[in-house]
Design brief:
Strand content: 35-45%
Radius of gyration: 19 Å
Strand order of the largest sheet: 1-2-3-4-5-9-8
Shape: globular
Order of helices and strands: HEEEEEEEEEHEEHHEEEEEEEEHEEH
Helix content: 10-25%
Number of strands: 21
Largest sheet: 7 strands, antiparallel
Distance between the termini: 23 Å
Oligomer: single chain
Length: 316
C-alpha cells in the first residue's frame, strides 16, 4: 500500500492506506504515464496529473482502491465522493490524510466499477459534486496499469517486474539480536517500521518518523474487528485512542505517543491493544529488546544506519 513526512500520515498511508510510490522505484509502462511499484505487501500504480497532483491505484490481494495526492495544498473536504467517467459513476465516502493533502477511499472497487474504469477515456474525482481532479486515461495505458496492479498484488510478474510474493521472499528484513523484532526503512518516505508476529495471525508494528513514535496492528490472516474506541494498555499505563483503519487488515492510532506514554512503554512488560473491548493484540514484550527497538526505530527514521541496514531516505 501511498511524500509522507509525519507520523499521523503514516497511520493513513501504510499498509499503510494508499501509499505514494517513490518514482525512482516505480517501473513505467511503455506509454510512459503509469508506473508500478511494489512495497509493503501491496502494489501501487501512479500517474502525475496536470497541475502536479498524483492519482494512485493500490492493489492488495487482487483488490484495488485509489488515492489522490496534492502537491499544492489541501484538497477540498466534503462528505460525499464520486468518480465519474463518461459512462459510469461510482460513489464513495472520502477519507483524508493530514492537512487534507491526501484523499483516499477506505474500501475497494467492486467488479462493476473496475469493468467501467477499464473502458473509460476520461475520469473526474468529485467531492460534494465539485471536481477536485480530472484526468485523461485514453492513450496512457491505463487499462494495462489497472490489470497490472491487480496481477502484481497477487504476486504475478510482468512489465513491472516481480509481484508482491516474489519481492518479499527475496530479502526478509533483519531481526534484532533477540530474534524477535524486525526493523526496516520505508521506501515511501522518511519513516521506519519495527514489527513482530503475535500469535499466528496478528502483527504488532512500531512506527517512527520525525522524532515521534506510534503503534499499529496488522492482520496476517482474516480481518480486524472494527470499532470507534481504542484502548492501549501496558502493565503500568493505559490510554484511549481513536482507531484509524486502512481496509480490513490494518489499524493504527490517530496520534503518536506522548512523552508519558513513551516513558512507560520503554519499561513495559506487556502490551495490549483493544477496540470497543475486543482484543486485537496481547503481547509479552519483556526480554524482546523492545526498549532498544524504540531508540533504533527513531535512529532509522532519522536516516542513520545500523543492524537494520540503511536508514530512511531523508527529504531533499
Amino acid at each position: 500500500m501511498r511524500l509522507i513526512h509525519t507520523l499521523a500520515a503514516i497511520a493513513v498511508a501504510l499498509a499503510p492506506l494508499p501509499a505514494l510510490a517513490d518514482a525512482r522505484d516505480a517501473v513505467m509502462n511503455k506509454e510512459g504515464y503509469w508506473g508500478i511499484d511494489v512495497d509493503s505487501g501491496s502494489c501501487a500504480a501512479s500517474m502525475t496529473l496536470q497541475g502536479g497532483a498524483i492519482f494512485l491505484l493500490r492493489g492488495t490481494d487482487g483488490q484495488v482502491t485509489f488515492g489522490l495526492f496534492s502537491t499544492k495544498g489541501a484538497i477540498r473536504k466534503g462528505k460525499t465522493g464520486r468518480i465519474q467517467t463518461e459512462a459510469y459513476g461510482f460513489d464513495f465516502k472520502p477519507s483524508y490524510g493530514e492537512n487534507n493533502e491526501t484523499l483516499y477511499y477506505d474500501g475497494d472497487f467492486d467488479a462493476r466499477a473496475l469493468a467501467a474504469l477499464r473502458l473509460a477515456r476520461q475520469a473526474q474525482v468529485l467531492i460534494d459534486g465539485q471536481p477536485v481532479a480530472a484526468m485523461t486515461l485514453e492513450g496512457t495505458g491505463f487499462e494495462g496499469a489497472l490489470d497490472g496492479v491487480v496481477a502484481c498484488s497477487k504476486g504475478e510478474s510482468g512489465w513491472w517486474g516481480k509481484g508482491v510474493g516474489a519481492t518479499s521472499a527475496e530479502a526478509d528484513p533483519p531481526l534484532n539480536k533477540e530474534g524477535v523484532w524486525a526493523l526496516e526503512a520505508s521506501k515511501e518516505g522518511p519513516y521506519c517500521i519495527g514489527h513482530a508476529l503475535v500469535g499466528e495471525d496478528r502483527q504488532l508494528q512500531l512506527l517512527a518518523a520525525g522524532g515521534q513514535v506510534g503503534m499499529a496492528v496488522g492482520a496476517v490472516k482474516g480481518k480486524l474487528p472494527r470499532g470507534r474506541r481504542g484502548k492501549f494498555e501496558t502493565d503500568a499505563y493505559s490510554f484511549a485512542f481513536k482507531p484509524k483503519y486502512d481496509g480490513d487488515r490494518y489499524m493504527a492510532s490517530d496520534e503518536p505517543f506522548d512523552s508519558q506514554a513513551l516513558f512507560t512503554l520503554r519499561r513495559a512488560k506487556w502490551v495490549r491493544i483493544s477496540v470497543d473491548g475486543r482484543m486485537l493484540v496481547d503481547a509479552e514484550v519483556a526480554d524482546t529488546g523492545f526498549p532498544q527497538l524504540i531508540d533504533d526505530a527513531l535512529a532509522c527514521a532519522a536516516g542513520r544506519e545500523g543492524w537494520w541496514g540503511a536508514g530512511a531516505r531523508q527529504p531533499s
